[in-house]
Specification:
Blueprint lengths: L6 E3 L6 E5 L4 H8 L4 E3 L2 E4 L9 E5 L3 E4 L3 H11 L3 E3 L5 H9 L8 E2 L11 E7 L2 E5 L12 E2 L11 H11 L8 E5 L5 H7 L4 E5 L6 H4 L4 E4 L15 E6 L5 H14 L2 E9 L6 H8 L5 E3 L7 E6 L11
Helix pairs in contact: 2-3
Length: 320
């Protein structure tokens, strides 16, 4: 059937769509405060929150369109962008039939580091049998913000390495051979392993030991001491990377972060904020208020968030 006219429904108050992690929908709702509706993992809101933490992704230019046939829906999407990823929430079979008429997506699973970034990929869902919602412009490169890594099940001593893989992939910035890394609370060594794999020189600090096979790797120095006992002013040269996945209260991590930022002794910081008990939004906001920083709940975070300082352009949102 030839499409003569596309009926486009306006989103209320120029709404955008935030993509929720099913386990952290309440946190996203609390962050936004105001939203008009929730359908599956789609949270429709007029709130333009550029420092959003608990959104997996953001659809920046969502459009709602009425259509009559599967071929018409596919034609609408092809006219709006080259690649499309289905986010199925309603009328699943019909959704997949539409997706089958679209260009095949490039492989979404990657080894790490990601050598060939994904092209721009739009996302779409069906709201009902004849209503399509889609966005060609999104925040993160992978659909729904999900980096689908081919896991390394042999070398890392635990699964914490996936958080750092995701963080570095979001930054689109990896360590270089010979760069210096300070890994605070390093045991058993998952993050130390990731940075060492790039040829960086890692000083791992923890009262607990590193895994035996990690500590034997080249370019790793292990110091048995508290991560909080180290004074950045005692370090003569500025380090390239400061990492922390240490288990501590958010208040204590904030003090540590500010100590290093004030001393200006780390070029790049990636720190895990452990959100113990109820989500401490006041502490998240304190980290968010640090100029140049960014707080994001990663897909591989549990009840945690990750603080980046300074934030790369790719981490920033520009919702207008």
């Amino acid at each position: 059937m030839k499409v003569e006219k596309i009926f486009v429904m306006s989103l209320n108050s120029t709404e955008i769509i935030y993509i929720a992690h099913p386990d952290y929908l309440n946190e996203l709702k609390d962050e936004l405060g105001t939203f008009s509706q929730i359908m599956g993992n789609l949270v429709f809101s007029s709130v333009k929150k550029n420092d959003i933490c608990f959104a997996n992704d953001v659809w920046l230019n969502p459009t709602i369109v009425k259509f009559e046939s599967i071929s018409e829906a596919a034609k609408i999407l092809r006219a709006a962008g080259k690649y499309w990823y289905l986010n199925p929430i309603e009328n699943i079979r019909r959704s997949h039939l539409i997706a089958s008429e679209l260009r095949k997506l490039p492989p979404l699973s990657h080894t790490f580091p990601i050598l060939n970034p994904l092209p721009d990929i739009g996302c779409f869902s069906l709201i009902d049998k004849n209503t399509l919602v889609f966005s060609s412009q999104r925040w993160k490169r992978p659909p729904l913000g999900d980096f689908q890594f081919i896991e390394d099940k042999k070398n890392p001593p635990n699964r914490a390495y996936l958080k750092l893989w995701e963080a570095l992939s979001l930054l689109e910035h990896n360590p270089k051979p010979g760069e210096t890394v300070l890994d605070l609370g390093a045991s058993p060594g998952g993050w130390t392993y990731v940075m060492q794999s790039f040829g960086a020189h890692v000083t791992a600090i923890d009262k607990a030991p590193l895994a035996a096979h990690i500590v034997k790797l080249p370019n790793i120095t292990y110091l048995k001491q508290s991560a909080f006992a180290l004074d950045p002013n005692d370090i003569p040269d500025k380090i390239d990377w400061l990492l922390s996945d240490v288990a501590c209260y958010p208040e204590r991590l904030y003090e540590l972060a500010m100590k290093w930022i004030t001393a200006n002794k780390a070029k790049q910081m990636i720190l895990t904020i452990k959100l113990q008990g109820e989500t401490n939004f006041s502490m998240i906001q304190k980290f968010q208020s640090i100029p140049g920083g960014r707080v994001i709940h990663l897909l591989n975070n549990k009840h945690e968030a990750t603080f980046f300082y300074p934030a790369s352009d790719r981490l920033l949102l520009d919702i207008r």
